[in-house]
Amino acid sequence: MIGAGPAGLMAAIKAAEEGASVVVFESMPKPARKLGISGKGRGNITNTAGYSDFLAHFNNHGRFLKTAFKAFFNQDLLDFFAEEGLKTTVERGGRVFTASGKAPEIVSKLVAAARKRNVTIMTDTAISDLVIEQKQCKGVKTRTGRTFDADAVIIATGGKSYPLTGSTGDGYKFAQNIGHKVVPPLPSLVALKPERPFPISLNGLQLRNIEARLIIDGRKVQSEFGELAFLDNNLAGPVIITLSRTAVPEIVKKKQVIVSLDLKPALDHEKLDKRLLRDLNKLKNRPCSELIAGLLPTSMIDFCLESCEIDAKLNCSQLEARLRKRLRNWLKELNFEISEPGPWSQAIVTAGGIDTREINPVTMQSKLVSNLFFAGEIIDIDADTGGFNLQAAFSTGWLAGFNAARDQQK
Asked: How much is the pTM?
């Protein structure tokens, strides 16, 4: 087993339950570091959505997961953790978190479950390559030059997101060395960087109850309602994270990608205009900055005035109809042209990976090399945020472990 993340540990646990002798190789000092920070540190392990709805949250290769989900799905995962003593709670959108709100608890339960089943976990042990003989995987080589023989090997090294946790993309290299096609990895569920930096005054600002529309080459393709944040010259927060799954591949294709914010989604243009007129009449000889202060957070006032080319010293009674229209349009369509995705260090998951057409979805075994299996984020499957990606890791790990153990017993 290469990789002690959620997929690797679950694969090890299942293989051991099936009677296999299991060794897990982990390059980092501790297992599952990325899992320990999942769900903003609270551990969003799965989602209660039904089978069809669950699959709909994945990319076009979601159908690849049908067998894995039928073999080991969300309730199976919850039952497993319950038996291991982990308490969970269901929150908005069917998201399942640890009851304690501490993701590291998931890691400790998984590691304890593995060791209880006599799984050996070798940390600080990086693998350099696979041992392949006559299109069969016979073991692994460590970077120190040591070789370990094996009847079956599972690659569960994760993707490239959060590289400091050990997800450095080594598994792609192992797969490519034996002829597997790797769909170019892209950061997914990630912040988006505008082409023009926004003012420093916006950094750290969080907006609630806004609508964010994704426009590709002039066509609106998706919209999300909720929270947005301005962080480190990036647009971030839940609505942006969701839109990024669609946006990033289009950015890579050099298409024009615009995120358009509706800061007043509860008001259409007509109602917003009436409100502006009402507020202007009420404020009369007060400066326009006070009008803006009633509409936006303080840190956005100067940005709004400058963007709309409204003199800050102008009184409300002096705001002409054309300037009022400009302000209204800005509030309803604040556009940011996106130049690139946020860094890998901030991506929640990886889009891309081992081509699903070269993996048997019923067993998770390579179609090119026998006795070699894949599990988790290394495979070209990715989903929306909300516990879907971790469930895929656990399910593919379970299925790979089950079938790898069968291979070992032959």
From this structure: 0.89
Are residue 382 and residue 303 in the same domain, yes or no? no
Is there a contact between 364 and 400 (Cβ–Cβ < 8 Å)?
yes
The encoded tokens of residue 375 equal 């599990």
CB-based contact 257:213 (threshold 8 Å): no
Angstrom distances, CA of residue 223 to CA of 282, 327, 401: 34, 22, 39
Look up tokens 């304690």; give the residue. Answer: 100
212: pLDDT strictly greater than 80: yes
Residue 152, token pair as written in the block: 């079956």
Asked if the structure places residue 171 within a domain, the reply is yes
User: Are residues 225 and 169 part of one domain?
Assistant: no
The beta strands (E) that lie in 257-406 are given as 257-262, 334-341, 349-354, 372-374
Domain count of the chain?
Answer: 2
400, 374 in Cβ contact below 8 A? yes
198 lies in the same domain as 281: yes
Asked if the model's pLDDT at residue 410 lies above 90, the reply is no
Domain around 357: 6-188+348-409
